[in-house]
Amino acid sequence: MSNRKTKYPTLQLDLRLIKDLVVIIVSATAGGIIFSCLGQPVIVGYLLAGSLIGPGGLNLINEMVQVETFAQFGVVFLLFALGLEFSLPKV
Fold first, then answer.
1. Does residue 12 or residue 33 have the better pLDDT?
2. Mapped to the 3 state alphabet, what secondary structure does the chain carry?
3. At 50, phi and psi to the nearest 5?
C-alpha cells in the first residue's frame, strides 16, 4: 500500500517484476532459438539463458522471491509437458 513518504511503491514493485519477466521470456526465447538452430535440445538453451541472467551470471533479476514462484510453476508445466511425451504402453 502507499503511504505519505512513498506515493507509488506497489507500482514500482510491479514494474520491476514485469521487467524481470520480460527479461526472462526474451532470454529464454533467444536461448531456445539459438540452440534449436544449432541442432541441440531447446531445454539446454533455456537452462543456459537462466544461468546467464540469474544471480550467478549477470544478475539481471531483481525480484527473486516472485520470480522463484513463477519458476516453480514453470517446472510444473515443463514436467507436465514431458509427461505428455510418454505413452503408457511403451513404459
1. 33
2. CCCCCCCCHHHHHHHHHHHHHHHHHHHHHHHHHHHHHCCCCHHHHHHHHHHHHCCCCCCCCCCHHHHHHHHHHHHHHHHHHHHHHCCCCCC
3. -65, -40
Q: What are phi and psi of 67, to 5 degrees?
A: -70, -35
Q: Tell me: the pLDDT tens digits for 24-63?
A: 999 999 999 999 999 999 989 999 999 999 888 999 988 8
Say if pTM beats, i.e. exceeds, 0.90. no
What would the grid cell of residue 86 be?
510418454
Q: How far is CA 55 from CA 3, 62, 67, in A?
A: 31, 9, 12
| Domain residue extents for the chain | 9-85
